[in-house]
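User: Sequence in, structure out. Go.
Assistant: Echoing your sequence, followed by the structure tokens.
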Amino acid sequence: MSARPILRRCVSCRQLLDRRLLLRVIRLPAKQVVLDEGMGRSAYLCASRECLEEARRRKKLQRALRCQVADSIHTALQQRLEESRAAASEAR
């Protein structure tokens, strides 16, 4: 018996994917925005440069989380994206 994947929608491209393939941004109850830790209102982004740039340009994370998202969060997401690409190229 295999477990069914839990699907979430990217706020940028609106594609449904397994949540393990997406980057998670969370708004905590104190209106603090963090990555991958805690319980609260969540928004998911594809691990692609296009989705990240589109989300930043059109303020998709702010709309989904209903609060301001600091530039440091966008920078951290971009760093994670670059790290995952570097790890993938090393694996080859």
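User: And one key feature?
Assistant: The CA atoms of residues 27 and 33 lie 4 Å apart.
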